[in-house]
Amino acid sequence: MTQAQQNPFPYSDSNKRYHTYDYYLRHRYGGKVAKIPLDAGMTCPNIDGRCGVGGCIYCSGRGSGDFAAPPTLSFAEQDALVRAKLQKKWPTDRCIPYLQAHTNTYAPVDVLRARYAEALALPGAVGLNIATRADCLPDDVVALLAEVAEQTDLTVELGLQTAHDGTAARINRGHTWAQFVDGYTRLRQASPRIMLCVHLIFGLPGENPAMMLESVRRLAALRPDAVKLHLLYVLRGTALGDAYLRGEYRPMTRETYIETVCDALALLPPETVIGRLTGDGMGEDLLAPDWSRRKVSILNDIDKRLFATDSMQGKLLKKTAE
Q: Are strands 234-235 and 286-288 parallel, antiparallel or unpaired?
């Protein structure tokens, strides 16, 4: 029997022992759906001075929107450019516009409503993904998001990165764990139709694997609909990049990262969709770790470790609860 045939994980039809985003999309929409990164030209509260300046120490000037087209273009123009590049990999007419760069609930409600409508008007749009922060969810914005969720499949992606307030201060995150829980809870209560996806970063300065897994445990207790796990990579021109060049930061090793990801998956609810298991920066700007460039190899070795250790997503969840 192949690994896929003897895979005991319920949310999989392959050798993957975790609930992949690809599996979710195929079962939700009956086939492939392309995710289109868009830049709405937003900023962040830890950039403009509301709670800090300079942004998170690892963020590029594009605010995680490095793979989107320039924000000076309309969404239709951005969509055309991105879709042309994706056609060979994702030959499908259906798409999910993804407002990815910076904080996409950090503007007046009228501005947000217009931008969301513009994204949903793109050809073949079957949903909308909005990346933001839990401290940028005032009541009127939460009400707008609940309204949008009645019109389409809405995913709100909340950047948590860490549950440890000391680390959050160190990376200039600008909010606490308590503020995250408040925003997450108010969104959950406002609309059960909103899919909540939470981001965590492994390898943050000052954190060891035990601390990273503690963030996973706290997040798992909230039962998120989806989770993205990121590797902290170092980009040229960022505060983290400067610290790395001064010898003040050392990235995770490949082996430790793979082990930590596998341990994290075992702690997450099996129904939680896993949107990402690593991350990669723009090639010309990436300082370290060099091994992060080989994403397929990393994902393959995660699969191998889960199989070799007879582990899978959610395996340790019951034990943790007890």
A: antiparallel
